Amino acid sequence: HLNDTTPRIISKVSAIIVTVTVCLFAVCMLIPFDFGSYFVCLLLAIGYVMMSAGFASESDAEHRSAAIVGMAFAVIYTVLIMLVYFAQITTVRLEPLTAQAKQILDYSHGSLMFNMELYIPYSIFSEV
Asked: Are 73 and 54 in contact (CB under 8 A)?
């Protein structure tokens, strides 16, 4: 049974997770450490869903539908991000790829995965 402070704790912890992962992502980009930046993005997406859920649970009745829409967008974002970055840290990193597979999967070459990560989730956010 959740008590009244649990959503607030989840919101605060997830906000910390999001802040730390964004900072780690920036560090990994500056180093450059691709695997680290990809892995951190997986954690960031989980933290984002947690944060959205915490905020949604704290919303009042007047803002409940907006909170539910926000949760739906958070889930869509997380699914897309996890697909892209899981492919990067597994298949792209561990398997020798043909030129055609690299063109589709490798994030560093403006591929389908790059476009899926960059354009779909962030175009959704620009509409909200």
From this structure: no
